[in-house]
Amino acid sequence: MRINGFSGMDIDSMVKELMTAKRAPLDKLNQKKTLLEWQRDSYRELNSKMYEFRNTKLQNTYRQSAALNTQKAVVTGNTDAVKAEAGAAANGIKMEVSVAQLATAKAQETDGKGQGYNSRQSLAELANGIKFGQPTTSLGTSDYSKEYKIKINDVEMTFTGQDTVSSIVAKINSKTDLNVKASFDDLTGKFVIASKDLGSTGILDIKAPDAGNNSLMDVFGQNSTAVIKDIAAKDAVVVINGVKLNPPPTSNVITYNGVQMNLLAATASSFTENGDGTVTLTNDKPFTINTQSNPDKALETVKAFIEDYNKMLDTLNTKVGEEKYRTFQPLTSEQRSAMTESDIKLWEEKAKSGLLKNDDILTSLASTMRTIMGEKMGELSSIGITGGKYYENGKIYLDEEKFKKAINDNPQQVTDLLQGTGTGADNSIFGKLYKEMDTTMTKIAERAGTTKFSGDVNSLYKEESVMGKTLKGYNTEITALERRLTEMENRYYKQFTAMETAMTKYQNQASSLSSFFAS
To answer: Does the reported pTM lie above 0.70?
Structure first.
């Protein structure tokens, strides 16, 4: 606490008045920093809205094939044998389907250790016949360090006695280049390696290791050498409307007449393939697939898209056109202390307005969104999507009846235009909007330090962004300026203290002289 001198002068007030003018550059610098922080926060809020539109809406909803699918597959008969889903290209042809044989994978299976063994056990335990829960005191270091090898599709893998069965299964399955799946059955102790591809296209080549090395497969046999069972691959045998599919499917997921069928079980107890290409089925219980058209889901999808699109575009147009009040700058601490909370709130609403006015990134995005729709407006109009008035800045509208007629008459046309298919998906309306949102979010991330991988409005900023570096510079300047002002303030107090000392000395001398002459 500083104490005023005996001269009667209010030194604190005098120093404060002197420092007020000196602090003006610091106040300006803090205001610049605050404005930049507010602007960065505005970018983050917009980034959150873009993330929702890009990921939640476009990617995870509107670009999904089911979103515009007007077709529904209705299965009757042996419904346990199949799961069916109609696509946009479903042509409505009724199909009676018999599954004589499912496609199976090429595999190798050991004769198994039998019951009592567990996938949590080590190879050392299995190799020495120690069942789960039994003491392992008989095992030594050599048992755990012993190597067991296997070569799958020309890739050799080596394990040791300390590896558990579950870790071995996981390591084999993690090697995606092998394209195989390993499994262990706790009930039988059997170890199985199968090709991931079903039917005759599946590749599985398991070889024993070089002579003198232990084979991994042998560990899972009842004896020191496992009995390996080769399981041959089978192609599916399917008959649709009396016609056997040829070539036979090498998968249990097939698509015909626009309907995807996931075959789950055979419909016949046995079958015989005849020389003329037909199939004789025994105890066959086929299933029948019909398709029904319902445009309501597609209509709701497009209505929701148009609402979200207009909302996103309106947000951008509002931000870039927002009024900027240049006379309303961020308040200093002294100014805030002299105002009420309601006045502060109203002031800051004005100060925060227009922070992104005419922003180049947002202006470009809004323009590109309008261009994407405008370039296809002829085709869009044919399915009931039209543009608004020129002063509505790109807003679009939907004629529901026209859309329902278009998607009933030619669902593929609507799907190709909005969603696209295959390699054309990125050039569709939804695909182009997704790409533009992604590009814009990357630009905002580079400028403001946000992330395009999250919509969290509380996420931390990356310091190595354009704004982050500028704020670093402001902080450095503010720290240096505050230090200089503190030194200046201390110097003023020292000067006034010296003046007080001089005045006190003068008063003492004057007092002494007065008393001398008085005597």
So the answer is: no
DSSP 45-72: HHHHHHHIIIIIIIIIIITSGGGG--EE
Rounded Cα distance between 497 and 453, Å, is 60
β-sheet with 243-244: strand ranges across: 71-77, 287-293, 95-101, 237-240, 243-244
More confident residue, 475 or 89: 475
- What is the CATH number that goes with domain 105-231? 3.30.70
Q: Beta strands 214-215 and 147-152: pairing type?
A: parallel
| Eight-class DSSP state of 92 | -
Distance from C-alpha of 405 to C-alpha of 421, rounded to nearest angstrom: 21
- Residue of 205, 189, 227, 107 lying closest to 150 (CA atoms): 205
Q: What is the average pLDDT across 303-321?
A: 96
- What is residue 441's predicted lDDT score, i.e. its pLDDT? 97
Give residue limits of the domains in the chain: 71-103+235-293, 105-231
Contact 468, 33 (CB under 8 A): no
Confidence of residue 121 (pLDDT cuts 50, 70, 90): very high
Peptide bond between residue 247 and the one before it cis (omega within 30 degrees of 0): yes
pLDDT band at 480 (very low <50, low <70, confident <90, very high): confident
